[in-house]
Write a structure and sequence with these properties.
The structure is a single chain. By secondary structure, this protein is of the alpha+beta class. Among the domains are: 94 residues, Beta-Lactamase, CATH 3.30.450.370; 31 residues, no CATH class. Helices cover 38% and strands 21% of the residues. The protein contains nine helices and twelve strands. Strand 4 and strand 5 form a beta hairpin. Helix 2 crosses helix 3, helix 2 crosses helix 5 and helix 3 crosses helix 5.
Length: 304
């Protein structure tokens, strides 16, 4: 059987039309994605703190907003399904010149305490800070000319205490009445702080949230030193677990370090409930249904 080999000339071929890519559209998409990534990773902190505040997720659906003693709080659902607790501490909104004054007051408080000694309770440190701040009111007035001076001085004194001998950013979290638990996973400088909330309007049960906070190892070490100082307990590689009360915030803390936690120190803090858990609260919280509550009540009332 004869076989033939097909032959053709290049000139006989009809080229297949190929649509040119929309280079401008592709470039815009890349720039948009890059800008979004950069915006989500923008973080700020004053020089005297050891905690970064990340930009909150812009496309989140806001669930609740409120103010605590030291900050503003926004809770929302992000597009990736996580609930985000975004906090805006007062000191993070100060202008640079004001934060420079605060930093110098903190350094002065530390210097006086090293040279003169004395108590390190809140009243003593705030009293020392107040005497320094009053001497610099002219500089402070330049940053906040129309502010209530008494409230402003109180705010600065609290900030000085918080970042000189206090619990730093953890004080801001633990003074929020809606927060019940605080979790710092290792390594702390690569993981956000997580919290558990309760009593949020529109939510019947506890919700676990990621925060917009990421602490450095120095902040965690400072918290551990406070817990060691208050409890007198040892914490080292030979004693890598410490469980102790945190009386300043009516809470209990658990710290796990290397080698039990190979990536660094991890901390869990649980605040004591100020309200007892009754059957009615458990039903409202969604923990149990009314039928189960009725059975429990009957069994307790008729126990032998």
């Amino acid at each position: 059987m004869d076989s033939k080999i097909a032959s053709f000339r290049i000139s006989d071929l009809t080229p297949i039309p190929v649509t040119d890519p929309d280079s401008i559209s592709v470039k815009d998409d890349i720039l948009t994605a890059f800008s979004k990534t950069v915006e989500e990773d923008v973080r700020t902190k004053p020089s005297y703190t050891d905690c970064w505040v990340l930009n909150p997720t812009e496309d989140s659906r806001i669930l609740s907003t409120y103010r605590t003693r030291y900050c503003g709080v926004s809770i929302g659902f992000s597009m990736n399904g996580e609930t985000e607790y975004a906090v805006s501490p007062l000191e993070y909104s100060y202008p640079d010149n004001m934060n420079h004054i605060v930093m110098e007051v903190i350094e002065e408080v530390r210097s006086r305490h090293r040279s003169e000694g004395g108590r390190i309770d809140r009243d003593s440190i705030m009293g020392m800070a107040r005497s320094i701040i009053v001497e610099r009111m002219a500089e402070i007035d330049e940053s906040f000319p129309n502010s209530n001076k008494e409230h402003l001085v109180d705010d600065i004194c609290n900030i000085v205490y918080r970042y000189s001998v206090g619990a730093g950013i953890f004080e801001i979290l633990l003074t929020d009445p809606h927060i019940e638990d605080v979790y710092i996973d290792a390594p702390c400088d690569s993981n956000r702080i997580y919290v558990t909330l309760n009593g949020i309007q529109g939510v019947n049960s506890h919700i676990r949230c990621r925060t917009n906070l990421m602490v450095q190892s120095k902040e965690v070490s400072n918290l551990i030193n406070i817990l060691k100082r208050n409890s007198g307990l040892r914490f080292s590689q030979s004693n890598p677990i410490m469980e102790t009360d945190f009386p300043d915030f009516d809470a209990r803390a658990t710290v796990i370090g290397p080698p039990m936690s190979p990536l660094g120190n991890a901390i869990a803090i649980r605040k004591h409930s100020v309200r007892p858990w009754t059957l009615s609260r458990l039903i409202y919280n969604g923990t149990i249904d009314p039928k189960a509550a009725g059975i429990l009540s009957f069994l307790v009332d008729n126990r032998s």
